[in-house]
Amino acid sequence: MNIFRFIGDMTHLISILVLLLKIYASKSCSGISLKTQELYAVVFLTRYLDLFTEFISVYNSIMKIVFIASSVAIVWYMRFHPVIRRSYDRDMDTFRHYFLVGACFLFALLVNEKFSFEEIFWAFSIYLEAVAILPQLVLLQRSGNVDNLAGQYIFFLGVYRAFYILNWIYRYFTEDHFSRWIACVSGIVQTALYADFFYYYFISWKNNSKLKLPA
């Protein structure tokens, strides 16, 4: 554990709490992509297959459970809650996310650090997380206006990935056998996807105005 990973974990946790706050406080999931939330649920379910077979630390196990439970809960609320599901922007959230799942799984079969069951699904989860935000960004660009909590949710997700890149750089220089190059490259790609959003987020913050994305 290092400070960069800890800050990354905390900002990731904050992003989830912000999203849950938006859903519970407003009883609405307007502006949130169900497709992205489903992809994140798949990411955590496949990444943490070792939850009950490999113990690293209490902190590690708790974080795994929190990420799995929260992602599944968000999907459930958006799909089945009698009030919240009515606010889902189904007509705008049309990104064919299953293509991302298929492409990432095929890529994981071809490019992995060790051809084993857990390593293939670990690589798959890393690749999928790198592009999981795409349906959300597309939805926001289609709608134009971004409400405050939705904007903060995406902002903290981007910060989380940025600190994880610093975590990997730190580990590369301080650990003798650190070889998670797949995570490093995928993290850089994922952070790059946020570049456009961060630009408009900064402009709205600087001008103290409502966040808007170009169509």
From TrEMBL:
A Pfam family of this chain: ER_lumen_recept
PANTHER family membership: ER LUMEN PROTEIN RETAINING RECEPTOR
Taxon lineage: Eukaryota, Viridiplantae, Streptophyta, Embryophyta, Tracheophyta
Membrane-spanning parts: 55-77, 98-115, 121-141, 153-173, 179-202
UniProt keywords, alphabetically: Endoplasmic reticulum, ER-Golgi transport, Membrane, Protein transport, Receptor, Transmembrane, Transmembrane helix, Transport
InterPro entries membership: ER_ret_rcpt
Gene Ontology CC: endoplasmic reticulum membrane
Subcellular location: Endoplasmic reticulum membrane
KW Membrane (keyword) present: yes
KW Lipid biosynthesis (keyword) present: no
Main location: endoplasmic reticulum
Originating organism: Salvia divinorum
Membrane topology: Multi-pass membrane protein
GO process terms (BP): protein transport; vesicle-mediated transport
The protein, known as: ER lumen protein-retaining receptor
Family designation: Belongs to the ERD2 family.
